[in-house]
Amino acid sequence: MNVTPASRLRHTGEYYFSQKLRELAAMQQAGASIINLGIGSPDLPPHPSVTAALTSSAALPTAHGYQGYQGTPALRGAIAEWYGASYGVLLNPATEVLPLLGSKEGIMHVGMTFLEAGDTVLIPNPGYPTYRAVAQLCGATVREYDLTADAGWLPDLEALAQSDLTGVKMMLVNYPHMPTGTRADLPFLMRLVKFARQHQIMLVHDNPYSFILNDEPTSLLAVPGAREVALELNSLSKSHNMAGWRVGMLVGRADWLQEVLRFKSNMDSGMFLPVQQAAVAALRLDDEWYAELNAVYRRRRTLVLELLQALGCQTDPEQTGLFVWAAVPASAADGYALSDEVLRETHVFITPGGIFGSNGNGYVRVSLCQSEEVLSQALERIAQWQQRQPATALSR
């Protein structure tokens, strides 16, 4: 019997890292010692109080049933308190906070709630590949807006405003930006909100990186008028080393969240109660947690910058987040070519920037989610490889 997949999957391929991890596993199985500097999955544990809250709750016989679709009042309250303390944004925990089983899943919830055939979505190039996939799965039309180094990796809102925006319903934005690590200052965010209000476009701000190597965490909802046009996704994956726990949140307009809940309540049955109680503990950590976490990432970033310098890549010292974004040297055709060559010659994997969009073709991205020991090993492999190259073959 020939059963064909739904047409909605026609333009949606398997996620790049899903495929790449199989390739790296096959190389490892064949005897290669692979160092993976690709995916941003934190290797550090959560705070001990977080795991203690999980285990103590899990020991209770009453903790294992279905949970409410909106999360516990305690979790919603902790999210609201965190937003107030961290971003200066006051949220009503009963109506303006919706816990999620991860913010990636939340992108799909928002898309399925508000997008359909005939709608157009503005997505960044380069940007998180899931934005495009969700728009296509919802039947919407994808329209890229360019981000370039010359423009500081910020969209040209004036040019967008002068273009035909007929049918544009939603704009996905992400600052601090992944993959470039660009921060957006308050004046830009104010212009962004003004643009959305003038053109009646829903803003969906994806904000999981605001605490990583960033001294000024910012929420789009702190901008006056943003609540009229914006929803914001956030997550404990990066900021609290809880990627596998799948704890995210969607905050903003109460009526929009209620619509998202209509979709979400048909897709899942709530978050495991011990995970919710652990998330409450995580959200109540003080500034010392972030300071210690970022001290580790600063040391790692120093090694990654050395590694990229050894490859002849150029980086921006102002970038933030869990990765380092770097322009490839003139000797490399593009980021894919450099990534393939480094993997082949040193068994070190770095991410080609082109997976994030055509404007990333001349770049690579390196994760900070490996120990200093592992990063030093990767640096040593690359340095030894470069020493074996003829001087004429290198542009560094």
TrEMBL record:
Residues 34-382 form the Aminotransferase class I/classII large domain. Gene3D superfamilies: Aspartate Aminotransferase, domain 1 (3.90.1150.10), Type I PLP-dependent aspartate aminotransferase-like (Major domain) (3.40.640.10). InterPro entries: Aminotransferase_I/II_large, LL-DAP_aminotransferase, NHTrfase_class1_PyrdxlP-BS, PyrdxlP-dep_Trfase, PyrdxlP-dep_Trfase_major, PyrdxlP-dep_Trfase_small. Its EC number is 2.6.1.-. Pfam families: Aminotran_1_2 (PF00155). Its cofactor is pyridoxal 5'-phosphate. Keywords: Aminotransferase, Transferase. It comes from the Bacteria. One of its GO terms (molecular function) is pyridoxal phosphate binding. Belongs to the class-I pyridoxal-phosphate-dependent aminotransferase family. This is Aminotransferase. It comes from Hymenobacter lutimineralis.
